[in-house]
Amino acid sequence: MEQEEKSLNFIEQIVEKDLAEGKNDGRIQTRFPPEPNGYLHIGHVKAICMDFGIAEKYNGVCNLRFDDTNPVKEDTEYVDSITNDIAWLGFKWGNIYYASDYFEQLYDLAIRFIKEGKAYVDEQTAEQIAEQKGTPTEPGVASPYRDRPIEENLRLFQAMQNGEIEEGKMVLRAKIDMANPNMHFRDPIMYRIITSHPHHRTGHRWNVYPMYDFAHGQSDYFEGVTHSICTLEFVVHRPLYDWFIDQFAEGDYRPHQYEFNRLNITYTVMSKRKMLQLVKEGLVAGWDDPRMPTVCGLRRRGYTASAIREFIDKIGYTKVEGMIDLGLLEHTVRENLKMSAPRVCAIFDPVKLVITNYDAEGETIVAENIDGNPELGTREMRFAKELYIERADFQEEGDKNFYRLSPMGREVRLKSAYIIQATGCEKDADGNITTVYATYDPQSKSGTEGGNRKTKATINWVECNSCIDAEVRLYDRLFAVENPSAEEGDFRELLNPDSLKIVNAKVEGALAGVKPQEHFQFLKQGYFVVDDDSSAEHLIFNRTASLKDNWQK
Question: Is 164 helix (H, G, I), strand (E, B) or coil?
């Protein structure tokens, strides 16, 4: 039976209709326009998958354009991180542009607006301008500078650019309609003065910088964008987007803006400001802390690019805001890694197991990397008289419902090896078990004729002399409440105190020489990835996800 074809989302339907009608000469061009003032997070990935995905699906072009109109917050560090993240996700851009590429054109356009009586220089404070905006039901109050002569506006705007006017003293505003019910039409600011910070590309060439609403649509037009796709908060900006372009554009071509719902995920904050607070105050280890929703954080935690893209595909695109359960993202990465991450043994809380009747010097056990999937090969495990097992796999006085090791005569299989029976244990002065004793059946080795005997439990182990010490970081959800952004008070007080636990584990010798970003399933523990700071001398593993959702209600 053929798989049912996935239905088109509403933007794909728009694109197909435009293509059918021959709009823009059958050309599809999108753009992804991040501001280089921080690291990309999974919310941006939803936009990336849309912008690049549309271009990919319909043989179009998606350009990467950095919205670098505010030098106070922007840096080349963020430019580099953004390009790296997009490439890691598997997308290719047509060209890289910057809003600063158009500063000259935008400045000339502002001059044209002034000359046509569509813009003026305002000397009021930001507070005064805000007070005069009015409300959606009450008209605003015109600035006292709204009708100053064109020549004076030209002279003052030039003085602003020449650095003759102090930062914050003047702005250039569009002259539209102070009574318009859309607040964005009430003489929006087009330019402000920034002299305190050099631009990361243009240095001190400019002292005036365009606002987003003036720069964005014009940049789309200059580049030939056909479908300018953004999130729902820009719906109210769309009429202004169209108005600015209509003041100067010629011919039939116009870029059109379309909006979709943002990505909101439980137990997560998507606010760049809040994430910056977490980083600056040392509440996380940096932008790439594996608890952060940043792309670099997710990558370091072990999320694969294919899992993230599959998650975005599952949740889809609508025009209704909602909240996505973090459990769906975790489920997606589990399914993604299930048949690709090799299985290995890692003992988190080790206790020594001595097999008293094992007299050989040791042997090699050959185990499948993934049970039932021989294509992923095998690995060798050293087996000998002394092993480490999980402390929880032994009970000195096991009850009838405890099927693992206890001195009750019950048989237990060591994973991929032999069947054993516990005979007793040894304790220290505080009553803590230090050593478990057992006997083994030499005819019960897995893979042999006698190895088919079934037991009710199988436990993991590593050999004492060949195993490796490793630091294992057990990451969990960063916040303890489902929707931290909706809670009153300080969001930092909502952090999950158990979002990171570190254990010193014993792992198989087969893990010697692993490299950062290699994925494994630690049997009965979860999915793990080798951390970027791991080395041959100090192995570090990060938990990507547990084997099942431990947060289910």
Answer: coil
pTM over cut 0.90: yes
* Catalytic residue from among 118, 148, 262, 352: 262
Strand partners, 520: 528
Cα-based distances in Å from 154 to 73, 81, 298: 29, 39, 50
Is 112 annotated as catalytic?
no
Q: pLDDT tens for residues 366-420?
A: 988 887 777 778 899 999 999 999 999 999 887 888 889 998 888 999 999 999 9
506 flagged as catalytic: no
pLDDT per position as a tens digit, 451-466: 888 899 999 999 999 9
Tell me the β-bridge partners of 506: 347, 469
Report d(CA 422, CA 435) in Å as an integer: 11
SS3 per residue for 335-400: HHHHCCCCEECEECCEEEEEECCCCCCCEEEEEECCCCCHHHCEEEEEECCEEEEEHHHECCCCCC
Instruction: Give the helix/strand (H/E) hosting 97.
Output: strand 96-98
Are 513 and 536 contacting, i.e. CB atoms less than 8 angstroms apart? Answer: yes
Among residues 38, 35, 27, which one has the least CA distance to residue 81? 38
Q: How far apart are CA 302 and CA 163, in angstroms?
A: 49
Q: Tell me if residue 272 is catalytic.
A: yes
Q: Kindly state the greatest CA–CA separation across the chain.
A: 102
What 3-state DSSP class applies to 514?
coil
Query: Which uninterrupted H or E stretch holds 279?
Result: helix 272-280
Phi, psi (5° rounding) for residue 23? -65, 150
How do residues 117-153 score in pLDDT, each as one tens digit?
999 999 999 999 999 999 999 999 999 999 999 999 9
Catalytic residue among 118, 133, 272, 274: 272
